[in-house]
Design goal:
Shape: rod-shaped
CATH architecture of the largest domain: Sandwich
Strand content: 35-45%
Oligomer: single chain
Structural class: alpha+beta
Largest sheet: 7 strands, antiparallel
Distance between the termini: 10 Å
Number of strands: 9
Number of domains: 2
């Protein structure tokens, strides 16, 4: 979740920086290279979407071909355009990752009391006052996420195990009062079955993460 929020902030900041520096460059450039008022091109560039306004300015607005512009704010405008591209890519990747986590297949079977089951940005947290049964999840995991799969369990009494599987390949990890990295090198990137098995467990807290 934290990375997704950061991507939103970075994306918003890159948009603001792009329009600010591009607007400054167009204003000063138009004063030197255009027969039209500079403020008019500011409106065109900033309020016509999808860079159409900027393209119009470059084709039509810069009509003083014999004038060499000073290039004031030009480098900052180019840098802000690169920043916008990177910010957009970062936001897009994190949106897909967050959506994948949020839409992972969930299933709960058994008897639970005061249970909390949340999945956010690659962190699956389960807590319960009492638990007997199973809670399963089937997220899509990348190669990097398989390499950094980590689980931490705290149980007042009873037993909790984690069954990890993919196709016919699966194994069980006892996570009763333990914190450990789980080796998933035998699995392939894609959908992975995770199933928490509770045996008369009380005061349970399990944190499973892969990011």
């Amino acid at each position: 979740m934290a990375t997704f929020v950061v991507s939103i902030i970075v994306f918003a900041a890159s948009i603001l920086a792009f329009y600010a520096f591009m607007g400054l460059w167009v204003y000063h450039d138009a004063k030197e290279k255009s027969d039209h008022p500079a403020w008019l091109w500011i409106i065109v560039v900033l309020f016509i979407n999808n860079f159409v306004g900027l393209i119009l300015y470059l084709i039509i607005g810069r009509n003083k071909k014999d004038v060499v512009a000073s290039g004031r704010f030009k480098k900052l405008a180019i840098a802000s355009a690169i920043g916008l591209a990177l910010g957009t890519a970062f936001f897009t990747v994190e949106t897909v990752r967050f959506s994948t986590s949020a839409n992972a297949q969930h299933r709960q079977i058994g008897s639970f009391a005061a249970v909390e089951d949340t999945l956010r940005n690659g962190v699956w947290q389960v807590s319960a006052q009492r638990a007997s049964g199973s809670i399963s999840l089937s997220p899509q995991l990348t190669y990097e996420e398989l390499q950094q799969f980590y689980v931490r369990g705290s149980i007042g009494s009873g037993r909790v195990t984690l069954q990890v599987g993919q196709g016919n390949n699966y194994f069980i990890v006892d996570i009763t009062n333990t914190a450990q990295r789980v080796d998933l090198s035998g699995l392939q990137p894609g959908r992975v079955s995770l199933e928490l098995l509770f045996e008369n467990a009380e005061n349970v807290s399990v944190n499973t993460s892969w990011r």
